[in-house]
Design a protein that fits this description.
Elements: H1 2-11, H2 14-44, H3 60-66, E1 68-73, H4 86-107, E2 111-114, H5 127-140, E3 148-151, H6 155-158, H7 166-176, E4 182-186, E5 189-193, H8 205-225, E6 247-249, H9 270-273, H10 286-296, E7 300-303, E8 310-314, E9 318-322, E10 335-341, E11 346-352, H11 356-377, H12 384-397
InterPro entries: Calcineurin-like_PHP, Metallo-depent_PP-like, MPP_MPPE1, PGAP5/Cdc1/Ted1
Membrane topology: Multi-pass membrane protein
Protein name: Metallophosphoesterase 1
Length: 398
């Protein structure tokens, strides 16, 4: 049987064999192009910017001019030289690069926030390894001059509190122009950037400097929110900022006991939801959380770190959104947040990226079909109707 099939293959006209090989190459190329390029456009194209309440009362031109379109993502965890396998690096970074570049092209945001843990080994990477990681990040997350990129420090970028040093903090700040307690105002909207790793409360040098900046900024914002006719000597010489309640951006979430009350398909797995969170490790301490709420009275808090989605209401009125990881290494279903924000309101919408399990299924199905086509072509796989015909002929002969 095998020798007969081998003879058949050799006797096939060269033109026919080349034609079949060309068809196989086209099939494989089509699958690769779809799974590694087109699928990102197909999935992200379905995402839409949310409408802000009251947007219907103003013209479309006024709305586009006053609404800030922001993309928020977290925990990219670019692998380093110590723990990162080259194939894992190649795969994960390609996925994130294609997702990010596709989102920029289709959605055209005004600003993008990355809520920490940009790198996986920034807490211990050497100067050379750090430079290599930064180079790869800048390639993956390159953007036009019309889109601003803002990056927050996470524990994997500068180390947990016991690993954090002034050198690591300065290294991060130099690359990303980030400082804790920095105010970013765009279209009259106040964003407060917090180095949550430095909210340990033990009086360390980095912690003390960070908290002092936050207190000073809190004073400015609170004075700016007061009515013009309200007399306050403490605010007389303070620089006035836009009178808009701030939005806090940080890596660690504020204190919560666990993810037990978190819902949604991208929340923590059921077996992890009831595991208690450790203060100053999984979430901020209760004391640090109360400080931030008291200092700023924010209208929204955006955080990362847990790699899973969650929505919490603090003090019964202040929402906090935990943004899940943007990396397929941490999740089968990564996503990012799309926010339409004005000085007085905001609306958020989640945009899911392609599920890795679905991409894997497509590859498996394509591989199985490819094997069947090859076997059928070399006549090692007999077509069902031909096999049935042979059985009938044999039965008649008997």
């Amino acid at each position: 049987m095998l020798s007969s099939s081998s003879t058949t293959v050799k006797n096939l006209p060269l033109k026919r064999r080349l034609c079949f090989l060309l068809k196989l190459m086209c099939f494989v190329s089509s699958v690769l192009i779809f799974c590694e390029f087109l699928i990102y456009y197909m999935v992200i194209f379905q995402c839409r910017w949310p409408n802000v309440k009251g947007g219907a009362h103003v013209s479309e031109k006024e709305t586009s001019a006053s609404v800030l379109k922001a993309i928020i993502l977290a925990d990219t965890h670019l692998l380093g030289e110590i723990k990162g396998h080259w194939l894992d690096k190649l795969r994960r970074e390609w996925q994130m690069e294609r997702s990010f570049q596709t989102a920029l092209w289709l959605l055209q945001p005004d600003i993008v926030f990355i809520l920490g843990d940009v790198f996986d080994e920034g807490k211990w990477s050497s100067p050379q390894a750090w430079a290599d990681d930064v180079r790869r990040f800048q390639k993956m997350f390159k953007h036009s001059v019309f889109t601003e990129l803002v990056v927050i420090a996470g524990n994997h970028d500068i180390g947990f509190h016991y690993e954090m040093t002034t050198y690591k903090v300065n290294r991060f700040e130099k690359v990303f122009n980030f400082t804790s307690g920095k105010l970013l105002t765009r279209k009259g909207i106040n964003f407060v950037l917090v180095n949550s790793v430095a909210m340990e409360g033990d009086g360390c040098a980095v912690c003390s400097t960070s908290e002092a900046k936050l207190v000073a900024l809190s004073h400015k914002l609170n004075c700016s929110l007061q009515k013009p006719n309200h007399s306050n000597k403490r605010c007389s010489d303070v620089e006035k900022l836009p009178a808009s309640e701030p939005i806090l951006l940080q890596h660690y979430p504020l204190y919560r006991k666990s993810d037990a009350k978190c819902t949604g398909e991208d929340s923590a797995p059921p077996e992890e939801k009831n595991i208690p969170f450790k203060e100053k490790y999984d979430v901020l301490s209760q004391e640090a959380s109360q400080k931030l709420l008291w200092w700023f009275q924010p209208r929204l808090i955006l955080s990362g770190h847990t790699h899973s989605a969650c929505e919490v209401l603090h003090a019964g009125k202040i929402p906090e959104i935990s943004v899940p990881s943007f990396s397929w290494r941490n999740r089968n279903n990564p996503s990012f947040i799309m926010g339409s924000i004005t000085p007085t309101d905001f609306s958020l919408q989640k945009c899911f990226l392609p599920f890795e399990s679905r991409v894997f299924t497509i590859y498996c199905a394509a591989g199985a079909l490819l094997v069947i086509l090859v076997l059928a072509h070399v006549q090692l796989l007999t077509p069902p109707f031909y096999f049935a015909q042979r059985l009938i002929s044999k039965h008649k002969a008997v």
